[in-house]
Design a protein that fits this description.
single chain, 246 residues, alpha+beta, Glutaredoxin, four-stranded mixed sheet, four-stranded antiparallel sheet, 27% helix
Length: 246
């Protein structure tokens, strides 16, 4: 009888432990952040846009499609472009020591870059990102009116910026001019906006993000990035399921 009771307690404990393990699984295997700098006016970009769509089906990848504006005077103004997205790419030019900005460019975990249409190169960068990992754990919980984000304690080589990037899961655009004139193209996880939420220096902190910030500009998704020096290495990332936000 005593042995049966002990066995029952052990089984219950293991079941409870399994629940906690499942809840923390996302942090046990940190995501890989894949950023694509693209343009509707660039004829070399559609293969990279399609590749981003495919790899975005992997739940362990956080992807963002940034539309730059320096193609806008060449026959077609990108309807999704914003100057601050171009500014982000130019900041990567400095931090990654790249000779010039170009499209399509992929940046992985803020640390490595390559041509976004070269699948083997992109896969190699993603593997590199998986091996290095992201040291700062992040979790969230949907609340009435917004999202509570909890950023855990971690190490950082420099003060890190907390970026909130709002996105739209899919955007279909018919191109009316330029190098892709006449084509109908679909883009995945398109950036709609970004703003600084604060600074991270390694101490745990909790943030409340209002629903109005998450759903601005027609966004239906958002990502939190913890990034050293603003556009240096990404040390923490979390894609937030905004369908649960009320």
């Amino acid at each position: 009888m005593m042995m049966s009771r002990i066995l029952a307690i052990c089984v219950a404990f293991l079941g409870l432990a399994g629940m906690f393990t499942s809840a923390g699984a996302a942090q046990e295997q940190p995501p890989v952040v894949v950023e694509l700098f693209t343009s509707q006016g660039c004829s070399a970009c559609p293969p990279a846009d399609e590749l981003l769509t495919r790899i975005s089906r992997d739940p362990s990848i956080v992807s963002i499609s940034w539309h730059v504006d320096y193609w806008n005077d060449l026959g077609w103004k990108d309807t999704l472009s914003r100057p601050e997205f171009t500014a982000r790419q130019k900041a990567y030019q400095d931090s990654l020591d790249v000779r010039f900005v170009y499209t399509p460019q992929v940046v992985v975990n803020g640390s490595w870059e390559g041509v976004g249409s070269k699948e083997h190169k992109v896969e190699a960068l993603i593997d590199k990102g998986r091996q290095s990992g992201l040291p700062v754990p992040i979790a969230y919980e949907a609340r009435q009116g917004g999202v509570e984000v909890r950023i855990g304690q971690g190490k950082t080589q420099a003060p890190a910026t907390l970026w909130l990037v709002t996105t739209r899961a899919s955007e279909a655009v018919k191109i009316g001019g330029g190098e892709n004139s006449g084509r109908s193209l679909t883009y995945t996880n398109v950036a709609k906006g970004m703003r600084k939420l604060g600074t991270y220096t390694g101490e745990a902190q909790t943030l409340m993000i209002p629903a109005s910030d998450i759903q601005a500009n027609g966004a239906d998704g958002c990502t939190l990035l913890v990034q050293e020096d603003g556009t240096g290495p990404i040390i923490g990332a979390l894609a937030i399921d905004t369908s649960k936000v009320k």
